[in-house]
Amino acid sequence: MNAVAGLALVQLFIADGEVKQVDVRVDRPAAAARRLLLGKTPAEALKLVPLLFAVCGAAQSAAAATACEQAMGLALDPARLSVRARLAATEALLAHGRFFALDWPQVSGEPPQVEAFARLRKALAPVSALLDPARVAFIPGAEVAQVDAAAL
């Protein structure tokens, strides 16, 4: 469950069989998120950030950890940034796989491809541990292990 809910509203105004106007309102409660994070230590904030919204926890964690490093004047280590990007990409791949295997078939009247998604999850399950065995990639300034590309 989200710690902070939000609303995305898209309104289409249609006339004569075509869209004449589009209004998009994204009501992400940034003020509520600020209230949750203000006064927290960087470590506390980094634990809360991936819980704020329902998607992309790894990408949000990567962005928050990098922002903390910049605010603290820490060097942005290319290896650490690479691991963060790869963890976020792995998360995105799983999310897209879920969409294409489970959600999209239902939209088109087909049965969900549960077994295909299960195979994808199983294949991706070890990736995070291979990329970040000590689970430190989202800790500002932490030393990350050398990624074993052959194991991936």
- The overall average pLDDT, rounded, is 84
Number of helices: 6
Low-confidence runs (pLDDT<50, min 5 residues)? none
Strand order of the largest sheet: 1-2
Number of beta-strand segments: 2
Structural class label: alpha+beta
Global geometry: flat
Task: Give the N-terminus to C-terminus distance in angstroms.
Answer: 31 Å
| Approximate strand percentage | 5-15%
Main sheet specs: 2 strands, antiparallel
- Taking all Cα atoms into account, the compactness measure Rg is 19 Å
Order of helices and strands: EEHHHHHH
Helix content: 40-55%
List keywords for this structure.
single chain; 152 residues; alpha+beta; 6 helices
Notes on the protein architecture:
The chain is of the alpha+beta class. The protein has helices at residues 30-37, 42-48, 57-72, 78-107, 114-124, 127-131; strands at residues 7-15, 18-27. A two-stranded antiparallel ribbon has the order 1-2. Helix 2 (42-48) runs antiparallel to helix 3. 51% of the residues lie in helices and 12% in strands. The mean pLDDT is 84. The longest helix has 30 residues, at 78-107.
Characterize this entry briefly.
The chain has 152 residues and is an alpha+beta fold. 51% of the residues lie in helices and 12% in strands.
What's the layout of helices and strands?
Elements: E1 7-15, E2 18-27, H1 30-37, H2 42-48, H3 57-72, H4 78-107, H5 114-124, H6 127-131
